[in-house]
Amino acid sequence: MPDIATPLVAWQRQHGRHALPWQGTRDPYRVWLSEIMLQQTQVSTVLGYYERFLQRFPDVAALAAAPQDDVLTLWAGLGYYSRARHLHRCAQQVVAQHGGAFPRSAQALQDLPGIGRSTAAAIAAFCWDERVPILDGNVKRVLTRVLAFEGDLAETRVERALWAQAQDLLPTQAADMPAYTQGLMDLGATLCSQRQPRCADCPLHAHCRARAEDRTAEFPRKTRKLKRSRVALTWLWLRRADGAHWLLPRPARGVWAGLWSLPECADAADAQAAVQGWTGTATPGETFTHVLTHRDMVITPWQFRFTGEAPSVEQLQQRWPGGRWLAPAELDAVGLPAPLSRLLRR
DNA sequence: TAACCGTGGAG
DNA sequence: TCTCCAAGGTT
């Protein structure tokens, strides 16, 4: 087993990132929040969200006490909204079951909602020097290259083996854990990139088997292919004469769970039937495609502008429970899916 | 275990 | 335009 910890720790301290907003603190709340936001999300995307979130929820108690809708509003646009719901539940559990303090071990952290093995390890390493490995996308790339790890990471058994390797590569000194953990992240995010890794500048150059064999492009190996489905849907876009939009909360399960959206219809005929008997102007909008990781959503907004009196809120809510009219200025107060946010602000 | 869950950037 | 993927976790 090569000693990558020593050169990596030295490199991180001299050349790594030190000025990110969630660094320079060992406050588990701040570290935890950053780790959740950074799941499958790049640093540059998270920066603004992180600051706004801390401003509104400065500590775990404030977050726990907030309505879930407020949390989702601040999360809107960041994606993977189950993270926000789990984050909120986690805060409530920390307050209710742990007296407001995060449990101080990676093992115990993993019992909390939204915290898996890698996130738990990152928090424990950064905050308490615990000797536990992380294994995120960046680290998988770094380690499989260093080791020329041939296994297919689509297989559970293989991934388990890489976790074991990650454990064996940890620094001996617990005090080095923060710099080591950060170093792996920094290396994967900067030098050891997917394409065109800058091996000449890499502190692990001398230890890297893939580099020695000129095979960096072969790692990591992963055979699972992404199969993307396609779904077409029609959004009924009701607009009052004063410009207000009719929005309602989405179901607790599925895409954009808990966010606010337009009423969904099967097709244009369905939308047309919904406005039967009302006075106004119908405009079939331009169809656009919104791409998710696993699904292409082909969306047609079907707009209906009331020219006279709209039905009462009670009548509308009978059909769309929880719905309400929102003026353009009020759109910031609710969480909208990214494509709807673009549509309404256009 | 495989499917599901967003969005934006990079090449 | 297209593909890959980013400080993954849950069901």
UniProtKB/TrEMBL annotation:
Its EC number is 3.2.2.31. GO terms for biological process: base-excision repair; mismatch repair. Pfam families: HHH (PF00633), HhH-GPD (PF00730), NUDIX_4 (PF14815). The keyword Transcription regulation does not apply. Its cofactor is [4Fe-4S] cluster. It is an enzyme of class 3 (hydrolase). It catalyses: Hydrolyzes free adenine bases from 7,8-dihydro-8-oxoguanine:adenine mismatched double-stranded DNA, leaving an apurinic site. Residues 37-190 form the HhH-GPD domain. Keywords: 4Fe-4S, DNA damage, DNA repair, Glycosidase, Hydrolase, Iron, Iron-sulfur, Metal-binding. Binds 1 [4Fe-4S] cluster. PANTHER family: ADENINE DNA GLYCOSYLASE (PTHR42944). This is Adenine DNA glycosylase. It comes from Ideonella alba. The lineage of its organism: Bacteria, Pseudomonadati, Pseudomonadota, Betaproteobacteria, Burkholderiales.
